[in-house]
Design goal:
The structure is a homodimer of 531-residue chains. With 531 residues, chain A is an alpha/beta fold. Chain A contains 15 helices and 22 strands. At the A-B interface, helix 1, helix 2 and strand 9 of A face helix 1, helix 2 and strand 9 of B.
Chain lengths: 531, 531
């Protein structure tokens, strides 16, 4: 079956008006379009929105009552939003992953399915707060809505800038971007729409809206085509946003016969478990350390980020690989996991997640390696990954005990989230067909190392599948396929969300996970245990 | 069956959110509303428009998740446009007859069906042109849309002022007017929407739109409730507007088993013939003289307008009745018809529509009466209706030969229109069940006198029924009843429109009608003929 994009083009060839056919211009256009529609579109209400009546009518006349009608496709309605006298080679639309820290977008062509451009940008709201909580507090500033307005303006400006960059890559006017699909967490969606996020972070954690109706992008200040729809993916709850529904769309979790799992680590760790029959989800604060947001040398996966680390147990050499092979400037999430797993296997980090200088059976080479890399820094131990002289920045790249502690909390939280979720429905990890790992985390992570740390379950490595920025991919699906738009709403209706903030089970599992690999090493048979 | 108004109120009692029910506020409201809907409304898409999300959500929370949702009812969609924490006693909406010269409106209560207030105002566009044609030309001024913009602003300001007057009569804030239904001619609708009327007056006379989709009144600058819909009645063609569709609604012509006729004399004379099976219509310039817009002393039916005239053939006294019984200041359309009919019966106007001083068989009293009233004015004859000393203005109220000529053209056009229309479908006047006469013309006219002049067909007087401002009444029906909204569209689809501007038959009939009562007096058996 042909998929229905959010915007499409229909070639209309109407006869010119005469004394014997005095149908008005826009009614003539509608009749022409209606005659070309088949089910299910022919059953929908066909509208020409007020704001574009003049423009559409003028173009229709200029084209001699022939040309190409641009239609926005809503599940219950079709809007004629423009009329092109000449055939166009492309029909651009923007898919956007609206992250708290970063925005990532693709400009796609709805005619060919091709990606025209791709880019990302820092979320300008960072100026007003680095995390969701501080943004919500900033939105309340003054109590007069001015904080919220500033935040909305900042995110709108960020999107406008990013859209501008993308269209300039392919030399298309931004006014020819005919639609936008937005995938973001619940708070970011509220801030984009300029609606009050106050209750999101307050018990019982209720968003103002989970499933907003489509809005005109121009109504929120976006500079795309004036009638471009902004289709916002629905959220499930305060801590479970449209970005994860996007992930479910992209992974196809909701359509699979067998149970699989989806892990998305952004600012939060969000996890979904399920199949075409049922879906269960939860989210928790396992993210920051893994995303590189907490560790002192932490950074987003980008040029110069330490991505892979290997400690050779024969030569006792430290091998470090950075993204783009440029001098190291920091450590990204996957690099951190790699590093800590290697340090554990080299026994420089013990099962409690603490640096140790000495242990029984240490060889002289090993000892020399430790002496070279493990230093004392203001009374705290720190592991030098890259010394100052080889660093791409003005400091050595290192891992402190504080970073390590944060990392241990994150990995414990992650495993506790996963086991709490499977525990809720009585599914064993071994029964999972696949574990999809989304995001930069999924792209760069070595599941073997995450298993070593006890962060991910001890399964065959083939079970794990990185799916990239699934939030963005889901937004792309929204643009291309009405079925995805309807699936997104269905997922919202179907999914059960577990609130971890009030979950006793989670707290117990969290405590049990604060060792490497676990207090109960039997659940990680493939990981060596040093006592 | 209960009728569906354009706006309604639904009492919602939702449970408050909790950790076990984290449905977002607006989704909770929608669920609450949806649960209360039955067919056909339950099958429609339920939306909360972007612009009112914040306001609605805040009110819903403030009311403890209980209160009254205000819904706009579209044929395919329901919009929650407001939320009232407290019960309201009224739900005001505005019905508007958007005339070229005058605007007339009622403020109705959609809860009780009552009329809350009524008023009228001069169309401020008159500053830019008195008739439709001059407005269309003004709209083109400069070629940059600025003329059109001025006209739109003028009409919007007129409506805002009229709405303000009406709400102040009943002390209701104008922001609590939740809907507007507009009934106007095609050009006025174009000017209200600010869309180009250029082709309306140019062959082949094609409007830009006949059936515009509903628009938010705030989008065109109206100061009602920010989400109040403006429902504009559809037009059929350039010279056949929503005002006449309103008339068809108000008369019920489209639902009657037997054939009837509707005559609406405004700036144009618009006539519809038909029944529930078929409708045929035409329009022509028969109006101005009848509406009082052409005659020197012509005026709209209002205080001081000469409304009825009687010449007593015994005492040879002229009896004049004015509206509100105040000193005369002019002659309205019905007064003009009365006057000319009486002058014809007194043989002071001959069958060609010319004043005559003398004729065979004239009595001395008659002659004295003529000498007293028929004067010479700058070489033209004029009949003094009210002498200067009894006039309510600084001049006598009189009828000149020029006025009389205009009147003759109008009456000829009217009868020619009626016969052309019946001729098209082979219906005899005698077959008509009823002739509805709309407008001030219909309210004040004496059909007997119009028959004497040969303006209306020579039928039993009971056939004629005045239905007042049917354009306004139709707009009221639009507010109260979805069936009327759908009927209006159906009428637009069903009606056949005859273009008189290019109709040979009409021109022949027009020539034949330029005598009193007609060149063929046999078609007016009840009217005396003087030779």
């Amino acid at each position: 079956m042909k998929t229905l994009p959010l915007v499409t083009i229909i070639e209309v060839q109407a006869t010119a008006p005469s004394l014997h056919d005095n149908t008005a211009d826009l009614d003539r256009l509608k009749n022409g379009v209606r005659a070309l529609l088949s089910r299910p579109l022919s059953e929908r209400n066909l509208c020409i929105p007020y704001k574009c009546m003049g423009r559409v009518a003028a173009a229709f006349r200029a084209g001699g009552f022939r040309g190409y009608a641009v239609l926005s496709i809503l599940p219950w309605q079709l809007d004629i939003i423009d009329f092109l006298p000449e055939k166009t080679d492309y029909l651009p639309a923007l898919a956007l992953d609206l992250g708290t820290t970063h925005l990532e977008a693709t400009l796609v062509d709805l005619l060919t399915g091709k990606t025209l451009a791709h880019g990302h940008i820092v979320n300008r709201q960072i100026e007003f707060g680095t995390d969701i909580l501080s943004r919500i507090h900033f939105a309340e500033r003054g109590g007069d809505g001015s904080g919220l307005e500033l935040l909305q303006r900042a995110i709108v400006e960020s999107i406008n800038e990013l859209a501008g960059e993308l269209v300039s890559q392919v030399d298309i006017p931004v006014q020819e971007v005919y639609a936008l699909a937005v995938s973001g967490n619940t708070t970011m969606v509220h801030l984009l729409l300029g609606i009050n996020p106050y209750h999101i972070c307050r018990e019982p954690y209720i968003p103002l809206v989970n499933d907003p109706d489509p809005v005109l992008s121009s109504e929120i200040g976006l500079e795309l085509h004036p009638q471009a729809l902004a289709w916002v993916l629905p959220s499930i709850g305060s801590y479970f946003g449209g970005d994860l529904i996007s992930g479910i769309l992209a992974s196809g979790l909701d359509q699979a016969e067998h149970t699989s799992m989806l892990i998305d680590v952004g600012t939060n760790a969000e996890v979904v478990l399920g199949n075409r029959e049922w879906l269960i989800a939860c989210a928790g604060a396992a993210g920051p350390a893994l995303e590189g947001g907490v560790a002192k040398m932490g950074m987003r996966a980008g040029a110069g980020a330490v991505e892979h680390v290997k400690i050779d147990h024969d030569s006792w050499q430290l091998k470090v690989q950075t993204i783009d092979n440029v001098p190291a400037v920091g450590i990204c999430g996957s690099g951190l996991i790699d590093l800590v797993a290697e340090l554990y296997l080299a026994r420089i980090v013990d099962l409690r997640g603490k640096f140790q200088d000495e242990f029984t059976g240490q060889s002289p080479e090993q000892r020399a390696f430790v002496r070279e890399h493990l230093v004392d820094l203001d009374g705290e131990k720190a592991f030098i990954v890259i010394p100052l002289e080889e660093s791409g920045t003005d400091a050595p790249v290192l891992l402190t005990q504080i970073d390590l502690d944060a990392m241990m909390r994150s990995k414990a939280a992650m495993y506790a989230i996963l086991t709490t979720l499977t525990g809720q429905v009585g599914v064993e990890f071994g029964e999972l067909e696949r574990i999809y790992v989304a995001g930069a985390f999924g792209r760069h992570i070595d599941p073997r190392q995450a298993i070593t740390l006890g962060m991910l379950p001890d399964l065959e490595l083939e079970t794990y599948k990185g799916i990239g920025n699934s939030s963005l991919h889901g937004a792309e699906q929204i643009l291309f396929d009405e079925e995805a738009r309807l699936r997104a709403r269905d997922i919202g209706q179907k999914i059960t969300y577990i609130e971890l903030n009030v979950n006793q089970d989670f707290m117990i599992r969290f405590s049990g996970s604060r060792f490497i690999p676990h207090t109960d090493p039997k659940v990680f048979p493939s990981v060596p245990v040093f006592s």
